[in-house]
Amino acid sequence: MTSSDTDPFTGISDPLITHDLDEARTYIDQVYASHRLEAHTHRQLDFRHQYSKSGRLTIGHLTYGADVSLDIAPTEKSYHVCLPLQGRCVVEDGTERAQIGDGHAAILPPMRSLTVRWTPTSIQHVLKVPQEALEMQLARLINQPIDSSPTFALDVNLGTGAAQALQASVAFLWRELSRVDGLSTISLAREHLEQSILTQLLFAVEHQYSELVRADVRQPRPSRIRKVLDYIDAYPERDLSTPYLAEVAGVTERALQAGFRKLVGVSPSTYVRDVRLERVHAELLMGPECGTVTEIASRWGFYHLSRFAGQYKRRFGVLPSETMARGR
Q1: Are 173 and 126 in contact (CB under 8 A)?
Q2: Alpha-carbon span 31 to 43, nearest angstrom
Q3: Taking burial as the number of CB atoms within 10 A of a residue's CB, which of 30, 159, 239, 272 is the most buried?
């Protein structure tokens, strides 16, 4: 019930606040990409940044507090998604130009020289998405290998429902990572939300695979769904993410979701949760010999005890502590 050992999750960094141009440049070099940083007024730099990094993405909260420009070198194989929180910026590469702010965001592609001009009031969430991670998520969505990386325009219109959902999910992830007892303490939930953000990005922004991503989902054969049900029932203690279960079934994530809704009436994640609640219930009935309520719940992936207690009571009509008391 723990995160993969290959997921280098760092948690939220300590904030860096500096008025020194070279210190800010060195810091952004290390977190995002190599670049040249230049100030354009005598106003003092008021650089502020925090970030969190995992194997799927880096999410940061960034402001320079001054008129500065960043000339970004085409060095890293990562996409950078700039989502405005306040103010405006401009990004251009000589052929394209995009504004960050006033209902627009930007996607900075890998291996391309770009200039980003920040204003003093601009504040952004910046996502760094490794090219490999996005390609893997895309291949899962369309259930076939891809022959080239997705290509996006610089400008992202935040007026669509899909783009607004993406922006809301990023904001939610940041809030949760910033809380002491938030998603940073629940590795599986954090990883699922990160995967969801990659999926939303591929739905919200046009690219050469958009038609395949948005194509009508074919219902998988019932035998494939039953195979997944049997797998969940046999191994509920494993990391049963929706992408992994789609691999078990040999279908796309969207097809798996559709098949579960039709055959089972709930999503794959809800079914996994219900099976684990049944296992918790069985252990609680055995009494304290299996551990405390907290230990048993945590063993089955329920780390937020108040939420767990609510889910348990809705399913069994009593609190977990009442079940354990009966088992004594």
Answers
A1: no
A2: 25
A3: 272
Give exposure, 295-314, as e/b (b: 16+ Cβ within 10 Å).
Answer: ebbebbbbbbeeebbebbee
* Res. 107: pLDDT tops 70: yes
Structure confidence by residue, pLDDT tens digits, 278-306: 999 999 999 888 899 999 999 998 888 88
What architecture is the 16-204 domain classified under in CATH? Sandwich (2.60)
- 21, HSE (Cβ side, Cα atoms, 13 Å): 15
Rounded Cα distance between 233 and 215, Å, is 31
Domain ranges of the chain: 16-204, 217-265, 271-327
Q: Which candidate, 272, 276, 262, 274, places its Cα nearest to that of 314? A: 274
Residue 91 · residue 97 · CB < 8 Å: yes
The 16-18 sheet, strands edge to edge = 16-18, 47-53, 58-63, 123-130, 78-86, 104-108, 155-157
Q: CA–CA separation, 260 vs 229, rounded Å?
A: 9
Residues 185 and 304: their CA atoms lie apart, in Å, by 9
Taking each helix axis from N to C end, the angle separating 268-285 and 242-249, rounded to the nearest 10 degrees, works out to: 100
Q: How far apart are CA 196 and CA 222, in angstroms?
A: 25
Other C-beta atoms lying within 10 Å of the C-beta of residue 116: 22
Picking from 195, 228, 276, 229, the residue whose alpha carbon sits closest to that of residue 1 is 276
Rg (CA), the chain: 23
Q: Is 211 helix (H, G, I), strand (E, B) or coil?
A: helix
CB neighbour list of residue 185: distance below 8 Å, 6 or more residues apart: 303
Q: Structure pTM?
A: 0.72
The SS3 assignment for 299 reads: helix
